[in-house]
Amino acid sequence: MNYELTAKVLLLLPLFSALTILLLHKLLREASVYVSLGSAIICLICSVRLLLSPPSGDSMEGMLLPFLNLPGLKADFGYILDKQAIGMMFIVTFIGFLVHLYSTAYMKEDDARPRFFGALSLFMFSMTGIVLSSHFVMMFVFWELVGLSSYLLIGHWFKKPEAADAANKAFMTNRIGDFGFMIGILCVWALSFVGTISDKPTTTHALAAPEQLLATKMANSPTAVTTEGADYTGDIRFSTLATTYPKSSSSSIPGWLLTLAALGIFMGAVGKSAQVPLHVWLPDAMEGPTPVSALIHAATMVAAGVYMLVRAQVVIAASPLAMDVIAWTGGITALLAALMAVQQNDIKRILAYSTLSQLGYMVMSVGLHAGEAGMFHLYTHAFFKALLFLGAGAVIYACHHEQDIWKMGGLKDKTPMTFVTFAIGTLALMGMPFMSGFFSKEEILLAAKHECWGLLTIGVITAFLTSFYMTRCVVVTFFGKARGEGANHAHEAPMVMLVPLMLLAAFSILSGYGPVAEKLKALKPHGPHGDGAGLVMGLSIGVFVLGALAGLKLYWGKDKDPLNIPLFANRFYIDQIYAMIVKIFQDRLAWIVTAMDTIFADGLAARLPTAVACRVGRTARSLQSGQLQGYGFVFGAGLILAIYLMTR
Amino acid sequence: MSLLEIIILLPLLGAALIGFGAPARLVGRSVALINLLLGGAALALLQQGKTLASSRVVLDTPKIAFSVGLDGLSAIMLLLTVLVTLAAIWQIIDKPAIYYTASLLISGGALGAFLSTDLFFMYGFHELALIPTLLMIAIHGHGDATTRRGIAWKITVYLGVGSLILLAGLAALVIYIGQGATFDLGYLTQAAANVKLPAATQGWIFFILLIGFGTLVSLFPMHSWAAPAYASAPTPVAMLHAGVLKKFGLYGLIKVALPLLPLGAKLEWVQNALLLMLVGNIIVIGLVTIHQDRLDTLLGNSSVMHMGYLFLGLAAGSQIALNGVVLLMFAHGISIALLFAICGKLRNQLGTLQFDKLGGLAANAPFLSLMFAFGAFASIGLPGLANFAGEVMVFVGTFDPSVGSLTSGLKNIHWATIFGLWGVVMSAVYMLRAYRKLFFGKPSSGLFMSDLVSSQRLPFVLLAVVLLVAGCYPGFLTGLIHGMFVTAAN
After folding, report:
1. Domain end (from B208, B231, B262)
2. Three-state DSSP class for residue A250
3. For chain B, what is the largest distance between any 2 Cα atoms, rounded to a whole number of angstroms?
4. B167: which chain A residues are within 8 Å (Cβ-Cβ)?
5. Which residue from A165, A617, A641 is facing B167, i.e. has the nearest CB?
6. Residues 97-116, chain B: which have Cβ within 8 Å of A?
7. Does B418 touch chain A (CB under 8 A)?
């Protein structure tokens, strides 16, 4: 198999599809949909072939496209095909294809279908770019491009003010994250010029042996970086980080710099993966069409933060402080988001907060030195959360665009297939034993148990809450009696929408097991986790049962919410606080600065000389009226000065 | 007559012909098109390694010659000028012939300034381009007569005084380095290596040039002429000035000040002053831009703000940063010209640019909406469009080890970069807000915006495609200036 060609097809075919639709949508019309769908199918085939016959050796690197190549800044686009990239690529193309398929039916009534599918193709291009990225600048480029496609798709119904506002909020919040990301990249780049490598190689597992050897060899000679034959200066490739990036602070490399680099990189992930405090954009992003929420705002793009952190593991692991910050940010996000989810009534918002919470788990595990557990959860979560969102889409479709779960009810008989698949997704998310979510959550909790009891507690409480709010969601939506017009006349979604649900349901179970999990597992397992596994398993089964029972007890047969916790329902008032901060620190400050600018720069510095010049101009105007003289005066004075200076 | 001379004189000749009554539209558009082709030809010749230069001595002592030459830097400016000129000329519809004359004069003056290798002519051509700019704002500017006259006066004074200071700086160069004998830039550059001015003297001259050139580029706090000028200027003039002519200040600093005064640029007090001013551009004007409630002043202020990044790259002075500055000059010129062109179309049809009166334009004008997206996303540094590569190179260049080692703590320039990165966030805020308010949401009642007819789309598509191509393959432009700044960096 030609790997370079495969990588190129995966990257460029969706771009080609997007450009075709952009340029020819008037000609293609309905065919635009099939252009996009076709590109998604071919990409899926490519990535399945990669999954089945991965390149020999652990990874493979190569060049894709020229971008920037200056002395000191090598940033041509390349690709990496390793287990992590191939696994992620399968998730992206598989769920991407199913969402394309689903959307052909879901978006049938929409007049702007070509635009929708064009933006989907643009998203596929950007996302495969992130997955294939071989270095930080390329990652950043596609990082921003997924931001753009997310912006376009959230704002698909741009005439709706909420959708337009949500699109802006998403892009701007991500920009704040990217502010840090760029600082991090700059620090990593600058560190590549610091020619010494940590003199204390850390003890890692056996796999790293050859690299370690190289690192030790290089540490022995001061000018090692150049004498090794490879010029690492200005090199920001992920593949060379392991050998070139300092493992810990030393006399020549201060700790604060490593921490700045690590936290900067992490800030990028905080934005993209919607971690506290930049989580506010994700729930609002639900204004976009539901298939978009499934693909971009649940399964793939928001998980890109975790993917990137695992890629940049060496950088963040160099700073213990940063690792603590990452783990706790993830833990706090998991808990807060789960609490918020308990009191939401919009079915998509419940799922959105649940996504935040699960992303928190993944980020937490990265901070706990268990990136592979995070990646595993990313994979399983991608399947069941995409399933839940597409299921929610089918429910919304069935209920004639009703999204409030309290106006649904009794749907299990009217939409049986949707109910069964949604239930499977729910159980996987709740972490029922033998479902995929159980296994992956288990690994994260296990990592927490080894590193930090506080985070284990948070993780277990979050698991309980997850079980509780998902039970609530299913009970209220599918059981009891219909409570609204839409639910009364509900009808099952067409087959094109149901097939993706069934496939995702199958993967929501299977991805926890043997062959599938093995293919997908990003990295080598962390090592035997024997001790404590029993305790963690007991805890997670316990809270699963407790949460489900509590949910059933409280919500079975209820017509309105028996719980009323304004703090959770209003999302801890964080959005309101931010609005206030923006008002004060941006709009007010802008007003003050503008006023000062007008007074000083414009008033004193400009009006005064202008007034003087006007007087002079008026004298000149006695000859003739017009502006030319005034200017001529200044210009002439300049010439006179020049002549004076030269002939002096 | 050499190719470069033809490129400079053609627009001036065209302007004269229109003045004598030749059909304005025909002459204007033909000159713009021919110049685009000639510019492309000059670029192709340069890439093949041909030297394009010629010289005509005008005065013997001190030696002043009409000499022109093309290096990678001036080639990029040439390309920028001919592209924007074409787009600007196409924006003139149902307007008096003076619009064409003025545009051609500005274009010719800018070309002369960028292609001259003699300080005298470099300066003179720039002044030649400024005069029609000022007159057009005074006579045909938007707004009522008193306001636009006030604005015209303000610019005249600002740019006039700026030019004077600049002239003093240039004169100092000629006297100290050229011994008063010549204005020839090539000779001066060689002489600078031999004369070895003390750093302190270099610092002062550099600072004078910085203030002089800086005023022309709206360096904070000499910026307050720019935003009202662009808001008031007729569309083609705004495009040509913001897109092209304004870059002359930076071009001068890179082409004249840096190579002639390498030590002066590195002096700590000069550096700190420059950093303070450019952070003013980015943060202060960034906030001012957020506060704007109409499109024209928003674009004007954003253009002032973005000059901060260019000065940041200049302050860093590393090879990567200077490459980035050149790329960003080009990118900013194209993107701001595109945005001003759209702004002009909106003003013509809607009669207002007030955000709270507009909305939902995308429904009826999808093409304009797409083009605005190109310009807006380019100017907020979206990868794939030209500005991103330039910005990244500037930012990366400030972290270059030649600028200062990071390991001993963040230097002032690193802080300036961090402020600059925050500026990128602010850019996103005001541009996306503007896009949201103008094009998204419910269409405003009573105001209908029809989309452009096909014949008017050409210049927009041209600029958008250039942004895309330069953004996806910046190597084409950086290849032209490859190695130019090695000495400047060391």
Report:
1. B262
2. coil
3. 69
4. 638, 641-642
5. A641
6. none
7. yes
B67 and B137 co-located in one domain: yes
Side chain identity at residue A244, one-letter code: T
The C-alpha of A233 sits at a distance from chain B's nearest C-alpha, in angstroms, of 10
Residues B234, B372, single domain; the answer is no
For A:162-181, CB contacts with B below 8 A are: 164-165, 167-168, 171-172, 175-176, 178-179
In terms of domains, do B320 and B258 share one?
Answer: no
Task: Report the residue of B392, B433, B480 to disrupt the A interface, i.e. the one with the largest count of A CBs within 10 Å.
Answer: B392
Residues B243 and B296 in one domain: no
Closest CA to B401 of B277, B316, B302: B316
Q: Measured between beta carbons, which residues in chain A are less than 8 angstroms from residue B216?
A: none
Torsion on CA atoms B60, B64, B65, B67, rounded to nearest 10: 150
The residue range of the domain holding B182 is 1-262
pLDDT digits (tens, 9 = 90+) for B25-77: 999 999 999 999 999 999 999 988 888 888 888 888 778 889 999 989 999 99
pLDDT digits (tens, 9 = 90+) for A274-330: 998 999 999 999 999 999 999 999 999 999 999 999 999 999 999 999 999 999 999
Q: Are residues B175 and B283 in the same domain?
A: no
| pTM for the structure as a whole | 0.91
Tell me: do B321 and B454 sit in the same domain: yes
Least confident range of A346-360, B68-82, B220-234, B378-392: B220-234
Using the 3D structure, point to which of B240, B262, B284 is the last residue of a domain: B262
Give every CB contact of residue A103 below 8 A, 6+ residues apart in sequence: A116, A117, A120, A289, A291
Residues B257 and B272 in one domain: no
Domains: count for chain B: 2
Please indicate if any CB of chain A lies within 8 Å of the CB of B64: no
Same domain membership, residue B32 and residue B139: yes
Residue B469 in contact with partner chain A when CB distance is under 8 A: no
Per-residue pLDDT for A241 more than 70? yes
CA-based R_g, chain B, Å: 21
pLDDT of residue B470: 94
Which residues on adjacent β-strands are paired with residue A464? none
Query: In the predicted model, what is the mean pLDDT of chain A?
Result: 85
ipTM for the complex shown: 0.94
pLDDT higher than 90, residue B378: yes
| Alpha carbon distances (Å) from A641 to A238, A451, A644, B188, B208 | 59, 75, 5, 21, 15
pLDDT in tens, A438-447: 988 988 999 9
